[in-house]
Amino acid sequence: MESNIITKLPKDATMIQIINELWRLPRDIISDGYDTALNALAEIVPMKIHEYPTGTECWTWIVPEKWTCHDAYLETMDGQRLFSYSDNPLHIMSYSIPFEGEISQEMLFKHLYVHPLIPEAIPFMHKYYERDWGLCCSRLLKESLNDKKYKVKIDTEFSNGHLNVGEIVAPGSSENIFVLCAHLCHPAMVNDDLAGVVVGIEVMRELLRRNNLHYTYRFLIVPETIGSAAYLSHNEHLIPKMKGGLFLEMLGLDNPHAMQLSFMENTEMDKCLTMILKEHDPNSWTGSFWHPSLFN
After folding, report:
1. Residue 265: how many CA atoms within 13 Å on its side-chain side?
2. pTM (predicted TM-score)
């Protein structure tokens, strides 16, 4: 992914148009692919982009380096290419260190990741704060690897960069804030969580058309987890005004909606959101803060 690649969206791009244009980009947490996607979104909605340089302390987190993958592949000893980064960016572990060499099957399997449940799926693996190399493939492909030796090439680069958070604000008559949030990272994936991003943008477009809002709504487009920590740690003055929030994720399937309640589980916001959810989707359900596996 070269930094000079530009993705352009029409101003009135639909959710499907946005997904079709952005899903394939290698959107690692700090990467040209992520920045390309965020900049494209900033052209179609009023957005402020907050930048947090590599090394910035975000409470107990530290912003990592920018990561770029130029190429990665696995080959047989006679040169047959089995898979590559150009086929699918999920074939490389995000933030893998560079590696090149001829290795045994035993050594390869220590660095080759597969999905634990779905035989044909390529898993998303990442090691943002560890220094290791890794490749990913389907379990079906891995089970077909019977040679004693293989060729591996991983051409990756670490550099100083910026963790970028997009913020869209729909002002209301009150300074009290309701937060929506979704993550734009995860290469070559839609449901996790480009689907949440496009739903959030559609919601904000509607809110920006209204002139009678009470709450002020802020939609944050972040790299997962570290992006929220970066934004909140640098906007602590807003935290007391935040009366509630909703993380938008896994919204691309035609399934009943599921909502994970807050840590307290019985706040006014929990009750309001549960009531609205049941009203609009009678088949929906809620789950405890401590049991996110309910939604898997």
Report:
1. 6
2. 0.94
